């Protein structure tokens, strides 16, 4: 919800947009810092980047969707990060939008 509040120094701001045209849907999000990121923010960015890279590197022809889900989930857990949502978005060409959509043993 839009407000008149002015962001404070080093605050994280997230923009998340979505749209629909007929049967097509789109979504993108961007996250910004209003200043120099603090140590907690830098660690969170590092961890999430590593988790994303680890999950992407696990993609191989024939991998089960369930396996990829657990690669990501386990990467969060090893870094003691909460795994709150089973959504994996790798890039614009390859999206896993909730593993149950594929079935737990769908080969990718």
Descriptive report:
Helix 1 runs antiparallel to helix 2. This protein starts with 11 loop residues before the first strand and ends in a 12-residue tail after the last strand. A two-stranded antiparallel sheet has the order 1-2. Strands 3-4 form a two-stranded antiparallel sheet. 31% of the residues lie in helices and 22% in strands. The radius of gyration is 17 Å and the shape is flat. The chain has a single domain (12-101), classed as Creatinase/methionine aminopeptidase superfamily (Creatine Amidinohydrolase), CATH 3.90.230.10. The chain contains two helices and four strands, in the order E-E-H-H-E-E. It is of the alpha+beta class and 108 residues long.
Short key terms for the protein model shown above:
alpha+beta; Creatine Amidinohydrolase; two-stranded antiparallel ribbon; 4 strands
Summary of the model, kept short:
Helices cover 31% and strands 22% of the residues.
In the CATH scheme, the class would be Alpha Beta
Alpha-carbon Rg, integer: 17 Å
H/E topology pattern:
EEHHEE
* Oligomer kind: single chain
Query: Given the helix and strand composition, which structural class is it?
Result: alpha+beta
- Domain tally: 1
- Estimate what percentage of residues fall within beta strands: 15-25%
Residue stretches low in confidence (pLDDT < 50, at least 5 long) are 89-103
What is the name of the CATH topology?
Creatine Amidinohydrolase
Amino-to-carboxy terminus distance: 38 Å
Q: What's the count of strands?
A: 4
- Biggest sheet features: 2 strands, antiparallel
CATH architecture: Alpha-Beta Complex
- Adjacency order of strands in the biggest sheet: 1-2
Shape: flat
User: Helix fraction?
Assistant: 25-40%
User: CATH superfamily assignment?
Assistant: Creatinase/methionine aminopeptidase superfamily
Number of helices, counting only DSSP H or I runs of 4 residues or more: 2
The overall pLDDT, averaged over residues, is 80
């Amino acid at each position: 919800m839009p407000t008149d509040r002015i962001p404070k120094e080093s605050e994280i701001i997230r923009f998340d947009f979505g749209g629909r045209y007929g049967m097509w849907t789109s979504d993108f999000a961007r996250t910004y810092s209003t200043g120099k990121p603090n140590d907690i923010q830098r660690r969170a960015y590092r961890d999430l980047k590593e988790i994303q890279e680890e999950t992407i590197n696990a993609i191989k022809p024939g991998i089960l969707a369930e396996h990829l889900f657990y690669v990501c989930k386990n990467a969060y857990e090893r870094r003691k990060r909460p795994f709150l949502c089973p959504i994996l978005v790798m890039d614009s060409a390859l999206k896993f939008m909730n593993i149950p959509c594929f079935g737990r043993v769908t080969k990718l």
